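Hey L., structure's done. Input below.
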Amino acid sequence: MGEFLEFFSNSIVASLLISIAIATIGSLMLINRYNYLAASIAHGSYGGIGIALYFGISILFGATLFALALALLLAYISYTHPQRQDISIGVIWATGMSIGIIFSDLTPGYHVDLLGYLFGDILMVPRSDLWFMLGVDIVSTLFVLLFLHQLLLVAYDKEFAILRGIRVKTLHTATLILIALTIVMSIRSIGLILVIALFSIPPYIAEKYTKNITSMMIMSGCLAFIMMLLGLIAAYYLNISATASIILIASAFYLGTFIKVRR
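Output:
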């Protein structure tokens, strides 16, 4: 056990910090049905990785700026062209990934394997990323604590929220910005392709067994941490990919819940 804790020390801390983000932002994604928007930001932010690689700047910095730009663009489209929003989401998704691929192709010389950012590797999370994760967790938790009542009104009855004078567009934009930040903080751990699955499954399961949003957030955070720990343990003893193990265990939880709910 001591060897396991020593080997996975950064990974366990990263799992805890990502679980906090899943509890808050993942739950907001679920009740607002933002998963497709989040997937577009996740895949589109690959463009920021490619540009950062080309210009030789920090990949985390480049991906953050690009993801924030995509979040603001999607927020604008959501309110100016809501009728065909799905088309715009798909275009942003594909365009961002294409930009990333082209800029990585144009980068001369040897460069890191960008597939690592698509599928992630939670065993390779540096300490600097943990501080970024902690900062995002603090901001997202404060956002939820300060605006939870307004966020629930917007999620379940947007027209009523507007009548109550709530700044719906501002909350919508702020939520997308926090989704972008949580995605970026998870890139190196989970990867752009797998991040949406992990941010969706624990809140989905928690929603089935809780009666209010606070309980749902707490349960989804605990579930996410348990799934990630089980994934790390499976990776350690079976000598397999940690990130893929985490996703498969989360998928098993989802399948079990899906079968039980349908009975």
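The longest helix spans residues 127-156. Residues 122 and 189 are 4 Å apart (CA to CA).

-- N.
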